[in-house]
Amino acid sequence: MTFVVTEACIKCKYTDCVEVCPVDCFHEGPNFLVIDPEECIDCTLCEPECPIEAIYPEDDLPEGQDKFIAINDELSKVWPVITEMKDAPDDADEWAQVEKKIHLLDRSE
Fold first, then answer.
1. pLDDT score, position 83
2. At 109, is the pLDDT very low, low, confident or very high (cuts 50, 70, 90)?
3. Does residue 48 form part of some domain?
């Protein structure tokens, strides 16, 4: 099993989770983070660090978030690893409670 970053992270991109990851499995895109399922060791450290509860165990995803298993896998292969906490975007708090943001996901490298 692995952990999955879900839709809630889009346009928020808080990086609290990155600092606690012992295996550097997080990858950073323009407005989203993903977890590399090949690198994740299921340590559970990242999940409680996410201030917007965007990280879930693969087997416990909220309804409608299953597509993020494939998205995390796909984008972790092209986006660079992130190992240190960065400032969130200036408008992250405004996006934190917005739902249905998948159309805003920037997949560019």
1. 95
2. confident
3. yes
